[in-house]
Write a structure and sequence with these properties.
Helices cover 36% and strands 13% of the residues. The chain is α/β, with parallel strands linked by helices. An 8-stranded mixed sheet has the order 4-3-2-5-1-6-7-8, sandwiched between helices.
Length: 274
Amino acid sequence: MGTRAVKIPKNHGGSKRSSLVKRLLPLLFFAAWILQGIQPALAQEPTRIYYVRHGQGGHNVVSEWNSIPKDQWPPYVGNENMFTPKGEQQVAALTKELQGMKFDFIATSPIWRARNTILPYLKETSRKAEIWPELAETPGVPVERIASDSKPSADLIGGGEAVRLPEAEQPFFLIREDGKRQANQKAKDPEQQIANSLALARKTADLIKERFGKSGKSILLVGHGNSGVTLLRTLTTPESPTTNLKNTGIWMAEEQSDGTFRLKLLNSKPCVEK
């Protein structure tokens, strides 16, 4: 009796799977290549600095009341530690506006009008802001003087009075270990006033770059008109169109790939530097 050859059936399923894998390999390699390009892009999300000027205070409206006898002035007129009725409305509107935005860090000037501009937002969102003495108001700096190398006061940084917070505000603010004292802005002449303003803006810019440069975080700073303009021109270009930073107006500067910043938002409206 002869030996019968046994036929082994072909594994048609395995062959189909192998063929499918071969066809999918190029697509898989392409997808991996795309993901490799996307991941660095996500990691390089630019750092954004948002800066808001305080709400309108009583000191902002004195000129509007000069024609009226002082004994007829409302209590807020001339008082830098009180908001005007318009200022109160501005703060309420700002609080709502900020709730639609995301911030990884918040810092504020130690001055009453700046703290109390952001305080309602902090209460609403259970956030805390860090006190930065460098954000206090300073004399204005002419555009042509932004690059000045004049010497500031020797005790400018940390040479002023201690930063103090009312007990009711203490749960909403933090004081930096190296920021427990106000800036001492006393100057012997206008030249030194300008030097002091620039030194505080540069110190603020250095703090931002050291702590948040290339981090992709969004930072909110709360301060004043003159100091806000000087800081923006220090971060971007002296010609930044910031001659009129409105009360509760927001500017935003976005970090570029080379570490510089470009103005993107001014008084809460889109703005592109030329």
